[in-house]
Specification:
8 strands; TIM Barrel; alpha/beta; single chain
């Protein structure tokens, strides 16, 4: 395990169970200024053990209202790169200063705006903010293994479906996830995130060895849940994932 310090280990131990991703963009049809706070309060009421949230502003609002561990990220879209989850050291510092105990980073091999693999930021963040726990968002096993080698305390396949190599994938790869749990679980907390739509999906991940499960759209974004239903009813003439993947850079 890459978190030998007592405080970090206690934090990681507290995260066994369901983590709810409470995110809202201003162009979402359900957006209100207090929406993420209500999402987080509902998640706590329902038994969530942690929250995942985007932007320093929303992190601060949630931390003021809900006493749960918080995984923070800062989505910043830039031209010429698909790296958008906390893509810079400054973004990571803003997430930390807003109150997140855990910082989520893109740790794929995608090139960032500086032309470097996204995972190169991980070591810089650990040097600058050694107290923080790092959640490595990856898209496949090799990226997960590399992130753990670099010192990530948490790793999960958050970006499966968001990289060029996985762009057309819509479902979780439970076989690959099981391999992450088997081969990396003794060194890092392997968390299932992405393509978890039902309680049965979550239980499958826990059965395979997940330390925790993160669920977002299926709980907190009813417009996307509705779109999944209408896409199927409409015989897949449209793809709800296009809306989920969309950039909110100009909002």
């Amino acid at each position: 395990m890459n978190a030998p310090e007592t405080g970090k280990q206690a934090l990681l131990d507290s995260l066994r169970g369901l983590i709810v991703s409470c995110q809202a963009h201003r162009d979402d049809p359900i957006y209100t200024d207090d929406l993420v706070t209500k999402m987080a309060q509902a998640a706590r009421w329902g038994g969530a053990v942690g929250i995942r949230a985007n932007t320093p502003e929303q992190i601060r609002r949630i931390k003021a209202a809900v006493d749960l561990p918080l995984i923070g990220l800062y989505k910043i879209w830039s031209p010429g790169t698909d790296v958008f989850i906390t893509p810079t050291l400054d973004a990571a510092k803003q997430v930390w200063e807003a109150g997140a105990e855990i910082i989520a980073l893109d740790c794929t091999d995608q090139l960032n705006a500086d032309g470097e693999p996204a995972w190169t930021l991980l070591e810089r963040v650990k040097r600058a903010i050694p107290e923080a726990v790092i959640f490595a968002d990856v898209s496949n096993f090799d990226e997960a293994a590399h992130a753990v080698d670099l010192g990530a305390e948490i790793v999960g396949p958050t970006l499966r479906g968001y990289t060029e190599q996985t762009r057309l994938i819509e479902d979780a790869d439970y076989r690959e996830f099981a391999r992450m749990c088997r081969e990396l679980g003794h060194r890092s907390c392997v968390v299932m995130e992405g393509h978890v739509y039902t309680p049965e999906d979550a239980m499958k991940a826990l059965y395979l060895g997940a330390h925790a499960v993160v669920v977002g759209s299926a709980i907190t974004r009813p417009h996307l849940t509705t779109k999944r239903f209408t896409d199927l009813i409409g015989r897949f003439q449209d793809d709800w994932r296009q809306a989920e993947r969309s950039s909110h850079a100009n909002v």
